[in-house]
Structure formats: C-alpha cells, structure tokens
Amino acid sequence: MRPLHPQMFDDLCPSTLSPVRIGDKWGGLLVRCLADGPRRYSELRIPLARITPKAMTHSLRTLERLGLVAREIEGRRVTYALTPLGRSLLEPLNAMCAWSDEHWEELVDAYDPDAEALGA
C-alpha cells in the first residue's frame, strides 16, 4: 500500500464547503484516507495535519460509533480500517467529490467562513 500524500487535500477542501457530511466535518476525508486499506493514526495525520489531534480522534470515534470504521488493537499498534458499511460509502463519496469538483468555483464563491464561525 502506498503512503498517503501530505498534499492529498486542498486547504479549502470540500469538507468545509460540501453541503453533505459523513459523520462530521472531517469524516469524509478520513474515509478517503482509509479507502486503500488500514492505516495507523500517525499515517492519517500526514494528509490531515491541519486537523487537531483532538478533532481527528473525535471524528474517528464518531465513524466507529456509526459502524463505518473499525479500530484494531494489536499490542501497542492501533489501526483503523473501513468496515464493509464504510467501504459502501466509497462510491457515493466519489460521486460527491466529482460533484464538488464540477461546482468548485460556485462553492468557493458561496462559502462564508464567518457564518461557520458563528455556528450558522
């Protein structure tokens, strides 16, 4: 399995701009990172460095509770992997990413970061 690329996601990635969320704000990005197979937390941090460790842990736990991600512990080694239910999200996620790519300029133009900061 190839390593995750540090620049896998644009700084203004659709997780912020997308009207569809998987679990929470970062869930879709985590699902995308796990698409090729199980990953350790430290591997996930590479393309998701802008997410605080607390937020990433919260997102992984949310995806676990939803049955989309499984956490496996072997001694001191912890890995995360998509469950069959989580893998079933890959096709719709690919469609959502294609839609976001197609409408990227409109999403960027419409995005209001102040509304998010105010909880709107």
TrEMBL record:
Protein name (database record): HTH-type transcriptional regulator YodB
Recorded name of the encoding gene: yodB
Residues covered by the HTH hxlR-type domain: 13-108
GO molecular-function term, one example from the UniProt record: DNA binding
Alphabetically ordered keywords of this record: DNA-binding, Transcription, Transcription regulation
CDD domains, sorted: HTH_ARSR (cd00090)
